[in-house]
Amino acid sequence: MSKKSRRGLVLAAPASDSGKTLVSLGLGAALVGRGGQSVQYFKCGPDFIDPSLHRLVSGRVSRNLDLRMCGTSFVRDSFARHCDADFVIVEGVMGLFDGGEASTAALARTLDLPVVLVVDGAACGESIAALVHGFATFDPCVNVSGVIFNRLGSEGHYRLLKESVEAHCRAEVLGGIPRHDEFVVAGRHLGLHMEHDGPLSPERLGVMADIIGAHINLDRLHALAGPLPQPLGAPVETRTAPPVRIGVARDAAFCFYYEDNLDLLRAAGSELIFFSPLADEQLPPDLAGIYLGGGYPELYAADLAANRPLREIVRSRAAAGLPIYGECGGFMYLCESLVTAEGEEYPMAGIFPVQARMKKRLVRLGYRKATVTKNTLWPADATLAGHEFHYSEIDAMPDWVERAYKLDDGRMEGYCCKNTLAGYLHLHFEGNPGAAAHFVDFCRTGGRAVGERLS
């Protein structure tokens, strides 16, 4: 495949579990390894896991594009700022039209990109044309330009589906992927395995690229893709104060971060210093604050508990008033203990006097709007946007622990001890454009009152 003009598309599906993530990874691997293209991934919605797999293929940071949490203007700006590659793949979420204002279809309209539909053909015959026709005509503002069949049983099966779609649909059939073990990635309670778990070796990606190259018409894929905007440069940094050193926990246990959040913190005047609660017995020196993101502390509870020196340092720094922010898995680490799904209990940092207990079933999932109820890392009455997705729950928090947020469903969430704020909510700081700056300023002043207020 020769080098051509920069193009991009949205890869979507009629429903979850159609195989679009594996197909998107295979397409990227084929373009990078066989076509010599640079590939930039984006992910529709709040997912943390797929972007980590995207990075394995492209060698570039994958970005979340979430219309509900961030709004149209930021999504378009983020896309234009990071689409500086030969080919862009925007991986959708759930079914094409699922999610209302945050759907893959809404994102395709916002970015003015065509959609290629990945359809699981395993149990389909000629009726697949009715499905494709319905998706292609449901919204005239969404251009479903191509179709890729997945999990096919034979070449004859592919011809049957292809002829039916070509006879009844305007979308072009780009190929069909046979059932193959390389197009299966093991999952767990929060989704597929992350990049550091090694689900995709270079050898496996090579096999996936070969399969895609043999069964998908990459030249036609490129032709159906849409043109990309001229990439924007990095935003101009206007702050002149010395940078604020904020420690960010980042390892296999704490790996759920929106890259835009980290960029927003840097742009607000922070220097991010990464450390590992699994491996490091000391915090980095001269920190003005700590950010503990989500992840899988339940899978590494024994190792986190074994690192007693760091747990005690985090607890003592919290008691001394160091600003600390923890979300979901980070919140669990800040609790008294963590109880795994198997019933094993492990001590954690002990800032909040409760157990975090893993459950067998999903506890909460969904977007949230949060109104801040206490002046802390963010000022009272500020409105923040976030997302919940967790399989753990806590004991009843004592009344003396102040609540940080009132959610749009009426629940109180987020908890404050001195200058530590933590809860299950994953925030996207662009949900309130002043959030990152206020967090950095709060750390800069050592947790004292900040004059700046969020809208």
Task: Give the arrangement of secondary structure elements.
Blueprint: E1 7-12, H1 20-33, E2 39-44, H2 49-58, E3 63-65, H3 67-82, E4 87-91, H4 104-111, E5 115-120, H5 128-137, E6 144-152, H6 155-168, E7 172-178, E8 187-188, E9 191-192, H7 202-215, H8 218-224, E10 226-227, E11 244-249, E12 254-256, H9 259-267, E13 270-275, E14 289-292, E15 294-295, H10 301-306, H11 308-319, E16 324-327, H12 329-334, E17 335-339, E18 345-347, E19 352-358, E20 364-372, E21 383-390, E22 392-394, E23 402-407, E24 412-417, E25 420-423, E26 426-428, H13 435-444
Helix pairs in contact: 1-2, 1-7, 3-4, 5-6, 9-13
Descriptive notes:
With 455 residues, this protein is an alpha/beta fold. It folds into 2 domains: 7-227, 3-Layer(aba) Sandwich (Rossmann fold); 244-444, 3-Layer(aba) Sandwich (Rossmann fold), CATH 3.40.50. Helices cover 30% and strands 28% of the residues. It is built from 13 helices and 26 strands. It has helices at residues 20-33, 49-58, 67-82, 104-111, 128-137, 155-168, 202-215, 218-224, 259-267, 301-306, 308-319, 329-334, 435-444, and strands at 7-12, 39-44, 63-65, 87-91, 115-120, 144-152, 172-178, 187-188, 191-192, 226-227, 244-249, 254-256, 270-275, 289-292, 294-295, 324-327, 335-339, 345-347, 352-358, 364-372, 383-390, 392-394, 402-407, 412-417, 420-423, 426-428. It is elongated, with a radius of gyration of 23 Å. The N and C termini lie far apart (50 Å). The model is unreliable at 188-195 and 449-455 (pLDDT under 50).
